[in-house]
Every structure is written in structure tokens, then in C-alpha cells.
């Protein structure tokens, strides 16, 4: 690794940055040695209705996983994101909205946003929503998505945002899992000039008997105004209920540990997990990481290209930036519409200072050549960020040179839905960067590497990435299933939070994330459980058995490689291939669409009948020379057939 180029901190940047190297060291040490004092101080960045007197009260003990921060304080997230800014920056832009169509954009001030949130909060109350109720949001990237999140928070309701690319089936499962009685959606969404029928998807989801029984109201934002089916007993227009509502709504005080939101994510079993995030610790952590990692200063224009359907959108489009009184850009469209210069055009148009995107987007741009951004003026940029998957050094260098013009620090931020906010990252004025490394832990984060037996590894090492103690942004539970939470995250390596990622630590103490060590794959920065895709496939009448693995993909990071064994009576055909692909898209959503489907007469199994995924992974990687020990295979000839018919040939 000695050929890795180190990019030193720019001294001019460091001189103006919130955190330089000396400050990082001092604050980091304090955060680890005395978390109560450290977070007691930094917890004050929020406005509390009742100040907390307790700070950290957490246990990672498998039999008593219990995580509480600031537990006796009361506050309101919407108050912290809106009301407290009104006096000083009521007229400042809170959200810049850039539509799918480049001619559409909007600036929404803090005062205006406050009014919209209060109206919807009152309207939701009018629909019977109470503190603690779960409201499901299935929305495009329009300001109403942020308004709806904050309106829920304002009245103490819990939001569960479901990514607008998920299928009606996936939506129904999430409505059901959260026992949600209200859904907020829009008539259609617009992405890359294409119209997606979101409301019709909700209608389909509500043909599921469990979801239908729960949902009493569907609130519909009018985005395109095209014709749609309507059920008077259930559907209401957003503009009708908000027009009739008052623009004044007191923010409801909630306890720091009251839930703010649920967010579903994939794990190694078939059923997605609804992770529960609470109010106080989450908001402190989201706000603080946003300010320090992006070196956010008042007046900056900050753009995170994620979707609000993912945790990145929650923490770094909505809660972190708005809690800091920032101007956050929300983009409805896609990077290649009307053409691939769009990101450049948006940066130029809105004079973006911090730009935060995913490696998959960077690689897609990179493929188009150096002039992909159409000579857009990018001189406003001061910092670049990356998130969602490991960034390969070539993409890092390209990002640095072509977008950052060699003068913007790059923060490669490692974190997860479970962590609530950024965990391992360079602080731009403090930490020299190495392309491909997420570098050092944020304040209060104590990472470690353990071997498969749970023994902690010292110094330069390769192992399972765990976190040794709690931090305020951490998820507290899986909605309705605390036992599953304990088992998933605290049973593999006792006393530690298990991330599910592998990592290497170099001699400088820098972390290099190597990818998932469990049955989760990362496709274009979207996290997916292989078991989820498998259970969708076996629900198809032609499929007897399915096994799904990831394989290296130039653009997506990982692609989805599927092995299927057909039921007798069904023949492998191109038509069936197409049908299976469409089937998975409709069961889960387009993001789960298989890249390669191989018909397998049989799966490699142990004598006890367990599929040997290690072998399937190697074949999918076209690395079948290194299959390792195959002596436990029940029928070794199966493997020969799989190799002969493999689909990924380098
Ligand atoms: O494998 C890691 C990868 O994404 C996973 C978390 O996915 P999700 O919960 O959907 O959250 C994504 C956005 C925070 C991690 O377990 N991952 C995320 N960021 C990075 C990363 N892998 C390498 N480098 C990163 N910067």
C-alpha cells in the first residue's frame, strides 16, 4: 500500500476550518475518556424544553441491550430545525429545490418552511394523527417530503419513509410492519422525464389485506396533476387539508428517547428491519457531524444528492442541515437528465459549496470523460463528500481532479442506517486523506477490529469492524422486535456493536472498509439482503430454489448474480429469464433487478443440505480456480456445470 498517494490537509483550509488537527486530537481524546462531559457539552447545541441532567446511559450487554442518551431532557426536532432559527434567519433559504426539469426550482425560507410544516402538522392532527402514531411517507424528492417529516416530528408522530422506488408489495410490508394508519404520497413522481405512478402504487399496496385494514387516510400531494384513481373514503388532497389548517402549531415536547423515525433496511434475513431512531441523541449527532465533517459555515450552500428514502437523506438533507440553520439543496432528478452535465449545471446554478454524493454516481460520470460536466463553473465548491460504498482510488482521484479541481478536500464518510450519522471520516481541516480510506473515527466513536472468534486485533490488521461503545446517533432498536435487534448487532461479538462490515487498519491507524462480511450486498450504494431477493424469486411458480450473491461491477460496485433451479416441468428460456427479472422488480423494486441469472440444475450443497455460498460467490466473481475446500460437497459435479455455464467472464 506504499504506492497510495497521501493528500495532505490544505493549510489554508485548515486555518479557517472548525476543526484542525490539534483540535481533533484533543476533542477526540476527551470524547472517549469522558463521554459524559463531552456529550453533555455538545448536547447543548440543541434547544431543549427541559434541559437534560443525565447524558449517557447505555449497555451493549446481549441480555440487556439498552441505549439512552440525554434521557430526562425534552425537546422537539421540528422546533430545533425551524422555530429557533426564525429570529436570526427567518428569511434565509432553508431549502433550495431543484426540479427534475431544469427550468423548475424554488427557494423556501425558514419562515415559509415553518408555516408549511405547521399547516401540515395541524392537518395531520385533524386526520386523527396523535403522538406516537406512525405515518408512512412514500414520496418523490419534493419539498413536501421534508415538510411531512418535520410535521410528524412537530406533533410527536413517528415517520417511516419508504423509498419511492420500492414496489407496492415492499410498501405494503413496511406499512404493515410499522402498523401505520396514515400514508403520505404524491400523485406521480418525475425522474429523468419519466412519470412514476406513486399513488397508484399505494392503491396497489392497499390491496394487501393487512395494510388495507390499518390505513385510514392517504394524503396525496399533487405533483403532476395527471388523472388518477380516487377513493373518497380514504384519499385526501394535501393542498385541501393544508389550506384549511392554521399556520400556527406549538411544537409538542417529547422525551429525548421518544422515537423520531423508523427506517427500513436490509439485513441477512428475508425480512427488512425497521430501525428505530430516537430524538435527542440522533439530532445532536446528525447536526454535529454535518457541521464538522462538511465544515459547514453560515451562508454556505450544501448539496447532498441522496434520496430522502435513505438514511443519508434523513440525516444530511433534512435533520442535520436544518438543525444547523443551513441552506440544503434538494434535487428531484437524476444525474444524466437532460444530459450528464446536470450535476455540474446544478452546482453552477446554485453556487454549491459542499457536494456530497455516492461513488456509483462518480463512476458513471467518469465513464463519460473529463468534460462530462460541460465546462460548468464549479468554482463555488469548497468540499466534496462520498458515501454509501467503498470508493475505488481511481474514482477518488477523478473526483478530486475533475470536480474538485485539486483544491477541495474529499471526505469519504463511512456509516450505516443503524449508526444514524457519519462514524469514520476525515475531518477536512484535520486529517490527511488517502484515496479509498475513510480514515479516522468521528468524536465519540471507538472502532475496533476483531477476528472471527471475537478477539480484538491490535495495530495494522484486517478483521471484522465493530464499535466498542455507544454514540448518540445510534439506532435504539428494531421496531417491535428488540430481541432481533440484540441478536443481530450484539450477539456475534459480545459486548460490541457488530457493523457487518470488514475493514483493514493500516500502520497510521486509518480504516479501509473492505465491504460486507454478511449476506448483504451493496448495489449502486443501495443496500440489499440477498435473502430478500431469493425469497422474491422462490415465490415465482417456476423457481424451485434460488441463491443470490454479489459480484464486482464496474459501475454499480456490486451487481446481483442469481442462480436458479427450476421446478420440474419448466424450461430455461430467454422468455423465462425476462419474466424472472420483471418479477423481482415488481416484488421489491427496480433496484433489486438481477444483472445476471444463471439456470443451475443443482446448487452446491453440504451433505447436510446447506448451500455453499462461498463457492457461488467465487464462480460469480469468475475466480473459480480458488474454490478452496470442496470436500464437504454432497455432489461435486454440480460445481463443474456451474463453472462451465458461468455468466461473468473476465
Ligand atoms: O457496507 C457499508 C457501506 O454501506 C453500508 C450501509 O448501508 P446503508 O445502511 O444503506 O447506509 C448507506 C449510507 C450511510 C455499510 O455497512 N458503506 C457506507 N458508506 C461507506 C460504505 N462502505 C465503504 N465506504 C463508505 N464510505
Automatic annotation (TrEMBL):
Instruction: Give one Pfam family.
Output: AMP-binding_C
- Cofactors named for this entry: Mg(2+)
Looking up CDD domains in the UniProt record yields: ACS
Q: How is it modified after translation?
A: Acetylated. Deacetylation by the SIR2-homolog deacetylase activates the enzyme.
Q: Where is the AMP-dependent synthetase/ligase domain?
A: 83-469
Task: Read off the NCBIfam families from this record.
Answer: Ac_CoA_lig_AcsA, PRK00174.1
Question: What's the protein called, per UniProt?
Answer: Acetyl-coenzyme A synthetase
Organism, scientific name: Marinobacterium aestuarii
